[in-house]
């Protein structure tokens, strides 16, 4: 039988109703709150990051290849589709590609007029990430024989033009000669990002080819999705070195730098906040062990007098502190994961999409982060338990027995 563990267990029962009991409860609560807040904070932070990144990627992908142009116009010179696809197939880091073309237009209804950008895509090559943003109606159908006359409008554009699913509208394209097309609203999307919702209409790329008199082999550009977004910079450098001189490569982090900077700022603030939480929880644990040692000074003196070693007595308080830490971590996980599960399934906490780009607090489950948080908390708690126990070696039996 482990004597230190046995005495530690007996002390735990004997402390009921004492000042030490109150302090230990505070230590357990502080550890539990720290763990719960860390789990919730990281789950929400990763939720924000994934939600916003997925919305951005649904429009711009990780990398965009287009014709080099000095005037920064939304309408660019076409590039060859076949040759570019063959070049991209040589890179194993590329997961999928999506051709696109853009053309400015003016939408006219009976009551309103609005300038927009028609972005043509080709789902016959790969599924569009835009499907995840659809909130009403259905996605564009792409017939094999002719260009689709269906378009997707954002919620903001639909409200401004007073259009709904099934309505049609006239699109005026300013070119020589001017062209007019009638499109049907097949669905309505919403990302919460004004950079997209106030500007873009999604349609069939073949409509833009017909307007520009392009053959099927030409596109406005190519959007590239990588297998690992974390490898964006090295893959972009590698691709750039192998592109033709008349093509340019744009990274999504440069095109929407303000959004990615905002995410980085969120990450930095959360880390600082979590460090403060860990410091407070560790300080409370150290204070708790100190108080337990002071209240048990007489007992420590008696144990030393009958032959107990410093390590045995230190182990006794170590097991006591370890028990408190494990209880705090358990209750913290119960509270943190429980809150995340409730928010994930029932969406109890709403958000204003105008300010947060989404209508609810997002939750992202990352088992690795949860395990790392628990391990880090456990190690910090062990350190907090071990430090005060070294005070035991300085306690003299004669003085300790007389201590009151």
TrEMBL record:
- Any single GO BP term: lipoprotein localization to outer membrane
- What does the UniProt entry say about where the protein is found? Cell membrane
Q: How does it sit in the membrane?
A: Multi-pass membrane protein
Q: Where is the MacB-like periplasmic core domain?
A: 26-239
Record's keyword terms, sorted? Cell membrane, Membrane, Transmembrane, Transmembrane helix
- Domain named ABC3 transporter permease C-terminal is located at 272-397
Report the principal subcellular site.
membrane
PANTHER family tied to this protein: LIPOPROTEIN-RELEASING SYSTEM TRANSMEMBRANE PROTEIN LOLE (PTHR30489)
Name the family: Belongs to the ABC-4 integral membrane protein family. LolC/E subfamily.
Question: Know the name of this protein?
Answer: ABC transporter permease
């Amino acid at each position: 039988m482990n004597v230190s563990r046995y005495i530690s267990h007996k002390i735990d029962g004997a402390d009921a109703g004492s000042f030490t009991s109150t302090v230990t409860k505070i230590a357990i609560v502080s550890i539990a709150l720290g763990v719960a807040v860390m789990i919730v904070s990281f789950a929400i932070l990763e939720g924000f990051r994934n939600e916003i990144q997925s919305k951005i990627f649904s429009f711009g992908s990780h990398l965009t290849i287009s014709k080099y142009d000095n005037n920064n116009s939304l309408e660019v010179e076409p590039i060859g589709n076949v040759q570019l696809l063959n070049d991209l197939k040589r890179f194993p880091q590329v997961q999928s590609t999506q051709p696109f073309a853009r053309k400015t237009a003016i939408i006219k209804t009976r009551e309103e007029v609005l300038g927009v950008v028609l972005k043509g895509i080709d789902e016959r090559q790969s599924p569009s990430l835009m499907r995840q943003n659809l909130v009403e109606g259905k996605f564009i159908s792409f017939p094999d024989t002719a260009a689709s006359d269906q378009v997707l409008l954002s919620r903001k554009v639909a409200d401004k033009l007073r259009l709904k699913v099934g309505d049609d509208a006239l699109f005026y394209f300013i070119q020589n000669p001017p062209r007019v097309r009638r499109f049907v609203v097949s669905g309505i999307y919403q990302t919460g990002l004004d950079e997209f919702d106030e500007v873009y209409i999604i349609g069939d790329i073949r409509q833009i080819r017909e307007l520009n008199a392009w053959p099927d082999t030409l596109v406005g550009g190519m959007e590239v999705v990588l297998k690992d977004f974390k490898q964006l910079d090295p893959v972009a450098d590698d691709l750039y070195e192998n592109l033709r001189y008349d093509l340019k490569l744009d990274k999504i982090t440069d095109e929407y730098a303000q959004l990615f900077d905002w995410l980085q700022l969120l990450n930095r603030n959360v880390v600082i906040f979590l460090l403060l939480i860990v410091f407070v929880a560790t300080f409370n644990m150290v204070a708790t062990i100190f108080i337990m040692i002071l209240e048990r000074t007489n007992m420590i003196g008696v144990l030393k007098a009958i032959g107990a070693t410093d390590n045995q007595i230190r182990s006794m308080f170590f097991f006591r502190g370890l028990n408190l830490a494990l209880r705090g971590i358990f209750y913290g996980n119960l509270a943190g994961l429980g809150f995340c599960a409730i928010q994930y399934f029932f969406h109890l906490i709403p958000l204003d999409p105008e300010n947060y780009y989404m209508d609810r607090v997002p939750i992202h489950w990352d088992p690795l982060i949860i395990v790392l948080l628990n391990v880090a908390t456990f190690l910090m708690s062990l350190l907090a338990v071990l430090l005060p126990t070294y005070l035991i070696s300085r306690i003299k039996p004669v003085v300790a027995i007389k201590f009151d």
